[in-house]
Amino acid sequence: MYRLALVVALFALAYHFGECTKHYSESHFCDTNYCPPGKANVGCRCKFNESYGTGCKGKSPKLHKFTKKDSQFILHLHNHLRHLFACGFINSFFPAVRMVQLVRYFSRIAER
């Protein structure tokens, strides 16, 4: 079940930053409706000395810069899980007809 959740999360990221949303601007996630009044979205260069949203209450968000090794590991893991999903190795899902590998937008995702 954990693997399926990871696959779904990675596909959501790929969809969000991929070709399927090319009609949005690159900063559409900075819409003020995403945040409580007076707060900045983490994706919009937030102030890291403040807590944001209910999920961050009482926590100190920190910026993590991905190294090239981190990025390569995440890309490899994503494509491995994509392969398992596409080939039908994830129970209760049919094999995919066409699933391309994530490469084009990965560097942009890692920068955010």
From TrEMBL:
UniProt KW keywords: Secreted, Signal
Entry keyword Signal: yes
Species of the source: Anopheles culicifacies
Protein name: EGF-like domain-containing protein
Top-level taxon of the source organism: Eukaryota
Localisation: Secreted
Transmembrane spans: none
Residues in the signal sequence: 1-20
InterPro entries: CAP_sf
